[in-house]
Protein 1
Amino acid sequence: MKALVIAQLTFREGLRKKLVLGVLLISVIFVVLYAWGFHLFVLDWQERVARRAARGMPTIGTYEIFASAMVLLGLWTVNFLSGVMTIFAAVGTVSSEIDAGTLQAIVPKPIRRWEIVFGKFLGFAGMLGVYIIAMVTAVILTARWIGHYTPPNVIQATLLILLVMVILLSLTLLGSTLLSTVTNGVVVFMLYGLAITGGLVEQIGTALDNDVLRRIGIISSLVIPSDSMWRLASYLVQPRIAVNFLGPNPFGTTTPPSALAVEYSVAYAVIMLLLGMLAFRYRDL
């Protein structure tokens, strides 16, 4: 399949981008700081428990709750970094190559235009998928080795973070077939910010029992469902005792999206990708 050749070339090209190398460097720094922070958290928790035990006072909450919060913070950072990396790695994948004249040399060859877009999608999805799995593994191993804590439903949460990446990648590729590189980057990044803000507004609405704020969050999830999939991942990766103790917060939720929301997100990503293929088919080069 010719799309696989394009995917292979896109994968190699993506690894050579300075932006990707910069994000990888930041990610390594994050993993080191995260492991250090988790180590300090464990020491502080042990000292706190010893002090309260010496005074004959019970411990507030359990270790599981706070270790779960540390894991949640780490996975939220992974989700955010992968979202930024997805947008800016793929933002000019079609538009910049049209401006540079690269695609004019490829299109006359015996390869369909949809195969070019689909191949680029596979290449970026493969590269970003490897990145997400590596980062999630680093967070989970840190929690297990340093914190002696293993969160539940890690595989399901990882698949949902991968779905967030696929949603953003499909949307970015669609924008790249219709808009200039700069315009596409601004539009998709603002939509990504809208999704995060909408999720926060929904959590505030849940905490205040305000239907208007909750509906604003739901509408933003329909416009771009990336944050709702993160909320579901955050819910699954925490034990119930931690969800009930922490309540609605900027990183998680007490009311997870339904299975219908997952189906909508998958359909959203597929439709965005198909629209991107269709738009590139009729795009003047």
Protein 2
Amino acid sequence: MTDTAISTTALTAKQYREARTRRAKRAGLLKHVFLILTSLIMIYPLIWMVSASFKPDNQIFGSLSLWPATFDWDNYGQGWTALSVSFTRFFLNSTLVTVLSVIGNVISCSFAAYAFARLEFTGKNMWFALMMMTLMVPYHVVLIPQYLLFLNLGWVNTYLPLIVPKFLAGEAFFIFLMIQFFRQLPRELDEAAMIDGCSPFKIYWAIIMPLSLPAMATAAIFSFIWTWEDFLGPLVYLNKVEDYTVPLALRMFLSQDGASQYGPMFAMSILSILPIFLFFLIFQRLIIRGIAMSGLK
């Protein structure tokens, strides 16, 4: 091959590489534009709510602009004390129910998951199938039977119907998530511990649980979010305003006679999502690791 032919081939190859690089850059740019636009569409309701929390009531639905003409900071002060009970009480009620529910879910579901994943007992497969079937039963189907049960127990108008079931491993999703994670741990750890004389509970407490923090953090975060923002459960079981949780309190800003307080409601809505945002921000690395290792991708 002559020098001229070699130079031509090299030049053609260089042009091909440059063209491929330009196509890759254009494709990357289009992907980023698409993702940015999609993200803006997804967070638009949140941006609108933040904007509405700083607007007077007459501007919230009267202007399409996201930037308030005047910043009405009084919505936050008025919203905190606008109802017959201060929002301090509602936040404390939500915190009590949520913290106890998270503790109950993590402890009870990890025990159940450990039994299904690492122990052998009669009817294990049958019980596991029954547990999985509960995932397909909508909550609304069992709402009335549960209400009648708690009514006969005298638990209605207390926090017990919202907290006690969490300590009885009633969340099949968390059990399944932890089972998937526990199965990833080597069986040799259990066998070595049994040779050293450890009981099943000691193996769970000393070996399985410390290695399962990502899965437990994932369950804790989901449990925190679902309990904090739960509206139907407190609506059914709580009757006294002073016992209301934050979602029920936000509903009280709306009135059927047209005297709704939208500005304070949106201001309190912004404050109500801050605990969820902070909780997720602190434990986001653990939740990603837990979901990845449990196979729930």
Protein 3
Amino acid sequence: MLEAIDVSLVNWSRAQFALTAMYHWIFVPLTLGISFIVAFMETIYVKTGNPEWKKITKFWMTLFGINFAIGVATGIILEFEFGTNWSNYSWFVGDIFGAPLAIEGILAFFMESTFIAIMFFGWKKVSKKVHLAATWLTAIGANLSALWILVANAWMQSPVGMQFNPETARNEMVSFWEVLFSPMAVEKFLHTTSSGFVLAAIFVIGISAWFILKKREIVFARKSIAVAAVFGFLSSIYVIFTGDSSARTIATHQPMKFAAFEGLYNGSERAGLIALGIMSTTDTDESNQNLMDFNMKLEIPNILSYMAYMDWNAFVPGINDLIDGNEKYGIMSAHEKIERGKTAILKLKEFKEAKEAGNTELAESIKAEFQTKDFQENYFKYFGYGYITDPHVLIPSVPLSFYSFHIMVFLGMYFILFFFLSFLFVIRGKLEKHRKFLKLAIWTIPLAYIASQCGWIVAEVGRQPWVIQDLMPTMAAVTKISTSAVQVTFWLFAAIFTVLLIAEVKIMMRQIKIGPKVKEEGGHN
């Protein structure tokens, strides 16, 4: 089956989806975080009655609105690509994947759309408390939107709560709650949304620092930084905890991804964590360019074992263990998984042939065997491996995964210090004197976006070649359309998204230069 697939079609389809997702994720994290920051600011306004807080709230609310509108445009295209570029995938898991996406559209999107109207246009039409409720519900709705798409993504990383139906060759949901509350889904939602909170807090501090450097709106800037610094600091600490628990879940369900982003080639007990490392440009294995040796690395003993299994002496499998197998630790080789996957695919083929031949008795016998617990756990579990011919394709890009993960972690540590200093300087009233720090705050904004994108690179590149972990490789999920059609739409989307991004930046900068309105008229001051 896979021999007939055009590799360039797969690569261009992947590139198009990655392009759309990465542009979309430029807008989303700011929406997730700044909506809550605005809600906190308005809460202070309602509690104190100080009109300065209303001015602050409305300024950041305007930036939220600009970002929200353009983010929605890129998100809609993503959902269409599942049908146009990944129709085999959509058929295979549409019964499961469609449910959270439908809930996102019906519940969360409508919810935030309804309350966002009150938030922007209801200042003079509803009471303070009703308006505040609308602001909070907009923030909750925006994050609920993220919940459903992250649940769908988590299911692809760790498929649960489903059963394969040989009659339709589709996976069908048997437990919605298992899909919704799987450890992968819960941790992905908490880690991703809280990282969005961090990015938004940095955005608010960076823009506020610009006002102070320009000696404009000093009180507005100080108050904004105070709220954002506290929100960002607490969110950063929370990101560490959610990231730590996510790593343990990945070590269990996606050990190859875990080994790749940790740069662990050979497993060991009391495995050390590579805190810093520089990889060689020379191939370690000529048959696989994804494996690169380290020129230099700083390793902390035992930490990786504890991080993965909460045990300082635990064995952590490396990439070579997962490919070659390790009998001592009960790790099956990739070759064995491939053979079991082929057995599952062959059994499905025999079932279809029996059905087509009208041999109902044989078909029912094969179906019964297919659905036994033994066959599901020992053969169907490795269904996707049956499409793999070379075990080396099971290894994701180690350099890209390793560097993305470590850049994300390094920047995460820097952000904690950044928030701490921001709050310290603002409560001591010395922020204006630290002009270098204020300039650094502005330059920290792009660093927050880099860290956010790195997180998704770790998540998506690290799980290759799977579109659904162990069940469907990416190359089997792609729609068989002409490569040139994908190339044309890739460049078209690249141009449109770039124009949208430039438009957003220009509108944002114009609004920032205008600044908050000096005087509010009417409404519930």
